[in-house]
Amino acid sequence: MSAAADENPLAEGLRLRRRPDPCILVIFGASGDLTEKKLMPALYALAFRHLLPEHFGIVGAARTEETDDEFRERMKQAVKDHARDEFKDEIWEPLAEGMRYSTLDFADDKGEDALVETLTKLDAERQTQGNRVYYFAVPPSAIATLVAEIAERRSAEGWIRLIIEKPFGHDLESARALTAEINEHFTESEVFRIDHYLGKETVQNMLALRFANGIFEPIWNRQFIDHVQITVAESIGIEGRAGYYESAGAVRDIFQNHLLQLVAITAMEPPIDFTADSVRNEKVKVLKSLHTPGPKHVVRGQYGRGFVEGEEVRAYREEEGVAAGSETDTFVAAKLFVDNWRWADTPFYVRMGKRLARRETTIAIQFKRAPHPPFEDGAAEGLRPNVLLIHVQPNEGISLAIGAKVPGQGMTIRTVHMDFLYGGAFREGLPDAYERLILDAMLGDATLFTRSDEIEEQWALVDAMVAMWQRDKTSFPNYAAGTWGPAAADELVHKDGRSWRRH
Ligand SMILES: NC(=O)c1ccc[n+]([C@@H]2O[C@H](COP(=O)([O-])OP(=O)(O)OC[C@H]3O[C@@H](n4cnc5c(N)ncnc54)[C@H](OP(=O)(O)O)[C@@H]3O)[C@@H](O)[C@H]2O)c1
C-alpha cells in the first residue's frame, strides 16, 4: 500500500480485496508493445500494492530470442519508463526473481515443449500449484492455435484462465467460430475477453453513480432524459498500425467494443447483484435491443490533412502502409435507439474517431428542460438544459450542469457546473485499467470482461452497418485532421434540433 493510500481514509476499500491463488502468468507476445507499455507496468503496480499472489511467477513468450536475464532487464526498463509508481528495488527484485522467458513460434511444437518445461520447473520453485493465467497479447490469428496447444498440454493439476485481447474476431461469423474453437477445450468461465474500457475506474463509477445513489435511477429514463451523447475522440492517428487499421477501420477498432460497451453500461437495468452473470445479463439485453441505424442515422468519415495541437499532420491516405485510395473509415457517428420501455424514442448520439480536435471520452446525459421557468423574458437566456457529464478520460470525474442565479439585483439565470474530480476527492492516482483486469482474471472474477453473447450482439450490429456501407457513396477524405469530424456528423444532430455538446 502506498504512503498516500495509507493516510487516505477514502482508499480504505482498496485493502479489502482478497489475494489471488498462487499462479503463473504466461504472456504470449512478451516482446510486443502491449507487454512493455501496459502489462508489465500494471504487474509492477500490483506488486507495489501487495496485491499479487504470494507465490507467483511470470513467463514471457515470443519469437524474439532472449535470455531470462535480457527479458528481466527489458521489463525493468519498461517499468521505469511506463509505471505509475516510483521504481523501487525492493518491489522489483522479488517480482523479477520469478520471471522467465521462453522463445516460441506458435507454428512450432518445439517451442511449446520448452515452454511446458519452463512452467513445470517454475511451478516447483515458486509453489504455484499448476495454476495458470495465459495472456494472449498476440495477433488474433494466433489465438485458436495457442488455445488448442494449451488444452493438449494441460496437466491434471491447477486451474487455467485465458485472457484474450481485442479484437475478438473481425465479424460475427469469425467471432462465433473462435468461440466454438475455444469452447471445444475450455468453458466460458475460463475465458476472459478484455475490453479495457471496462477496467477504467470512471466506467465502473457509472455503475456506482447509478446504482449506489437513490437520486439518479428514478430520472434515468425517457421521461426525464432528452438524449445521451457519447464521444470517444482520439487526437492521434494510426501510429504505424496501418496493416491492422486498414482491415478494421474505426467501426471495428472502437465502435464495436468500447463504444457499444459504454452504451450498454449507460442504458442497462439495475442488476440483481454484482456478480459476473447478473451484470452481463443486463448489458446483453441492451445490446439486443439496439436497433440497426438506417443509412440516414450513420455518418462515416476519413481524415484529410490538418493541424492537431498546432502541428501539421498528414491525411489518412498518406499514412505509411495505407492505400492511396483507401475507403477505410477513421470516424463514425450514429444515432442509436435502445428499443425498450426505459429508452424508447430517446436518441443515443455516438461519435468516435481518430485525429479529432482533442483526446476525450465522455458520456453526456442531457435532461429535458424545466417545463415552465417562471422568470421574465430574457432572464434565463444563457441557461442550457441540465447535463450530467461523465469524463471517462482525461480529467476523470463527473460534472453536473445546473442553472443558478447570477449574484446581484434582479433574476438572471446562467449555467454553472458542480464538479467531482477523482484526483481531488481520493488523492491516490487512478489505477490503470490493466491492473484491475489482470487482478480480476487471477481472482476468476469475469464481471468486467465481455461474454461471448455480448461480443456476438456487438458484431451483429457492426456487420449490418458495414453491409449497408457497401452502397455508401461518401467520398473521402471528408474531415480535416484536428476538427470534430465531417459536417454530416453535425447535421445528424442538428436536424433533430440538437447539437453536439460544446467543446
Ligand atoms: N498495443 C495496445 O495498446 C493494444 C490495445 C488493445 C489491443 N491490443 C491487441 O493486443 C495484441 C498485441 O498487441 P501489441 O501492440 O503488443 O502487438 P505487437 O507489438 O505487434 O506484438 C505482437 C507480439 O506477438 C508476438 N508474435 C507474433 N507472431 C508470433 C508467432 N508466430 N509466434 C510467437 N510470437 C508471435 C510478437 O513476437 P515477436 O515479434 O518476437 O515474434 C510480439 O511479441 C494485438 O492483437 C492487438 O490487437 C493491443
Molecular structure report:
By secondary structure, the protein is α/β, with parallel strands linked by helices. It has 2 domains: 3-165, 3-Layer(aba) Sandwich (Rossmann fold), CATH 3.40.50.720; 198-494, Dihydrodipicolinate Reductase, domain 2 (2-Layer Sandwich). It has 14 helices and 18 strands. The protein has helices at 3-6, 33-48, 68-82, 89-97, 109-126, 143-152, 172-183, 201-212, 242-267, 276-289, 422-426, 433-443, 452-469, 487-494; strands at residues 23-28, 56-62, 99-103, 132-136, 160-164, 191-193, 225-233, 290-291, 298-301, 303-308, 311-313, 331-338, 348-353, 360-367, 387-393, 397-405, 413-421, 479-481. Strands 7, 8, 9, 12, 13, 14, 15, 16 and 17 form a 9-stranded mixed beta sheet that branches. Strand 15 and strand 16 form a beta hairpin. It is globular, with a radius of gyration of 24 Å. Mean pLDDT is 92; it is low at 1-6. Bound molecules: NADP nicotinamide-adenine-dinucleotide phosphate (NAP).
